[in-house]
């Protein structure tokens, strides 16, 4: 379901050409002052609290400050890419749209988005974003302004660990977490759950792979390297959680992260440790306030003695269309959304990590101590490779991960088959 909020009655902006044709839009430095002061902006998602904040507070304030008119459309994540594809073909692309970092390379390769390097380098507080800006880099150029930050870490129930005689201070490696999960498992409770639903399984895999010093792709992005010994080690670990005599978890491929907060395994006590993002954790605490003092967060565990990594970094970022007639105004909107006051307010409402380092001392963070470990782990966050074919590659890999997790294919065979299938996708990108 698309949720559309038209903030002002404006006439739709006629974009100059079909983006798929490439190269027909306004050049990088033009168009900012020649067109009407109007913007069309698409945000992904359907969170009502976010929609209300953006459409009733943030955007009206931006309009007042700039004398502009902004039309905002919210699009559900599953519909975002198809809707953008249609817009590219019909020449009705919004001036600004939000998306994940995995889409950056494809947009850049098709010349659909504006490189932001000159504008970003001119920011006096550029360093306040830490490493988030780098996740929007494709071929050495920046295309994304961070809108939200995220991370996926292991969250545990202190009371359940204490009952099983497990000291959370000892859980510094994936090996030690597995050993603890064996002690924590009962007939009614999983010792540990990690995200294994389709697509989420790839995010769990890349965290383990990178923790084992492995790589998804070669440096040039043309060859799969996830079927390396490190990849086999990572996937074997995942499979062993759910399969065999040493299994510590039930419900492989179950999308527990999509359940209502009060129905989460940690809330029900049907798991002692699970993977969580900050938004899901804060929603859980809001739904179950009695759990606030019973929850703890682990730093990214090591694997095989190598430094731990976790999936995370930039959650959603904002792109500017290469064909926008209002690029300067679009950039002002990106600057506004990423400003300290606005970005902190946005993070607090949606429950994400702030995109700025300076926000660590904000009231939002200090009143939510569970966020401390998520913020401290930011240097260890890694995202997916920025290559044009990544979404297709990810989907292929996820399909084979599902087969391995179900015990149908050995980890090495699953990764080898996935590497072979994605070969033409990568070579053609």
TrEMBL record:
PROSITE patterns: PROKAR_LIPOPROTEIN (PS51257)
Domain of life assignment: Bacteria
Keywords: Signal
Signal peptide: 1-20
SUPFAM superfamilies the UniProt entry points to: Periplasmic binding protein-like II (SSF53850)
One matching Pfam family: SBP_bac_8
CDD domains: PBP2_UgpB
Name this protein carries in UniProt: ABC transporter substrate-binding protein
């Amino acid at each position: 379901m698309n949720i559309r909020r038209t903030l002002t009655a404006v006439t739709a902006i006629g974009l100059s050409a079909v983006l798929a044709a490439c190269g027909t839009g306004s050049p990088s430095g033009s168009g900012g002052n020649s067109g009407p002061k109007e913007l069309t902006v698409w945000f992904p998602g359907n969170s009502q609290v976010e929609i209300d904040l953006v459409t009733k507070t943030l955007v009206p304030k931006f309009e007042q400050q700039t004398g502009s008119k902004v039309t905002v459309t919210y699009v559900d994540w599953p519909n975002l890419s198809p809707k953008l594809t249609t817009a590219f073909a019909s020449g009705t692309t919004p001036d600004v749209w939000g998306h994940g970092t995995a889409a950056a390379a494809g947009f850049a390769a098709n010349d659909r988005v504006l490189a932001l390097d000159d504008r970003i380098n001119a920011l006096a507080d550029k360093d306040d974003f830490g490493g988030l800006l780098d996740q929007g880099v494709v071929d050495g150029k920046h295309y994304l302004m961070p809108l939200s930050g995220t991370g996926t870490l292991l969250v545990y129930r202190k009371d359940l660990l204490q009952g099983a005689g497990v000291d959370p201070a000892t859980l510094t490696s994936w090996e030690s977490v597995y050993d603890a999960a064996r002690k924590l498992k009962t007939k009614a409770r999983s010792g540990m759950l990690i995200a294994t639903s389709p697509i989420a399984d790839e995010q769990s895999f890349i965290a383990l792979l990178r923790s084992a010093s492995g790589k998804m792709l070669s440096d040039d992005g043309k060859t799969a390297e996830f079927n390396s010994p490190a990849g086999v080690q990572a996937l074997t670990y995942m499979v062993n959680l759910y399969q065999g005599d040493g299994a510590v978890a039930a419900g492989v491929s179950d999308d527990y992260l999509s359940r209502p907060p009060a129905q989460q395994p940690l809330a029900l006590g049907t798991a002692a440790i699970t993977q969580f993002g900050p938004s899901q954790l804060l929603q859980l605490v809001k739904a179950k306030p009695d759990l606030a003092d019973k929850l703890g967060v682990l730093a990214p565990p090591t694997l095989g003695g190598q430094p731990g990594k976790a999936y995370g970094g930039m959650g959603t970022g904002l792109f500017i269309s290469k064909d926008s007639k209002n690029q300067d105004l679009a950039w002002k909107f990106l600057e506004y959304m990423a400003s300290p006051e606005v970005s902190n307010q946005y993070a607090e409402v949606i429950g994400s990590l702030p995109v700025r380092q300076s926000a660590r001392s904000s009231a939002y963070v200090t009143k939510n101590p569970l966020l401390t470990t998520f913020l401290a782990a930011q240097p260890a966050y890694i995202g997916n490779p920025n290559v044009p074919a990544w979404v297709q590659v990810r989907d292929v890999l996820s399909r084979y991960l599902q087969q391995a997790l179900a015990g149908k294919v050995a980890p090495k065979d699953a990764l080898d088959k996935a590497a072979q299938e994605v070969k033409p996708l990568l070579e053609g990108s």
